[in-house]
Write a structure and sequence with these properties.
By secondary structure, the protein is mainly beta. About 10% of the residues lie in helices and about 50% in strands. It has one helix at about 60-70; strands at about 10-15, 20, 30-40, 45-60, 75-90, 95-110, 120-125. A five-stranded mixed β-barrel has the order 1-3-4-6-5.
Length: about 130
């Protein structure tokens, strides 16, 4: 039996303003950075906070919506999947890799709170380029 599941849910604040670009065939694409905080108490009772930074890619109409309505610091809720990317650095020639999130749905968030109904999320893109 084979089990395959690649689903990501993330809620956080944008770390930079989105920048819209177009592929050679005119499809809109934008990437955003999102920071999420995880607070926890260790076994000795000491409080800690970790920050995770994710890069999220949006396609089609969703990319245009993100670019138009979001800015650095604004909260967002995103559902999507992980995608590994590999490339060769142009300057050093070194091989590089990164794991990114490709958005399937998203929601605007008031006051940075988790949404009560993720099912109401907006579709992220017209067609999946991957």
């Amino acid at each position: 039996m084979s089990l395959n599941l690649n689903t990501v849910t993330i809620a956080g604040h944008l770390t930079r303003d989105p920048e819209l670009r177009r592929t050679t065939n005119g499809t809109a694409v934008t990437e955003i950075g999102v920071a999420t905080n995880r607070r926890y108490t260790d076994s000795s009772g000491q409080q800690h906070e970790d920050v995770y930074y994710a890069t999220i890619t949006f396609w089609g109409r969703a990319a245009e919506t993100i670019e138009k309505h979001f800015h650095k610091g604004k909260p967002i809720y995103v559902e999507g999947y992980l995608k590994n990317e590999e490339w060769t650095d142009r300057e050093s020639g070194a091989k590089r890799s990164a794991t990114r999130i490709v958005a399937k749905t998203f929601q605007f968030l008031p006051d940075g709170k988790r949404p009560s109904e993720p099912a109401a999320a907006s579709p992220s893109h017209d067609s999946d380029p991957y």
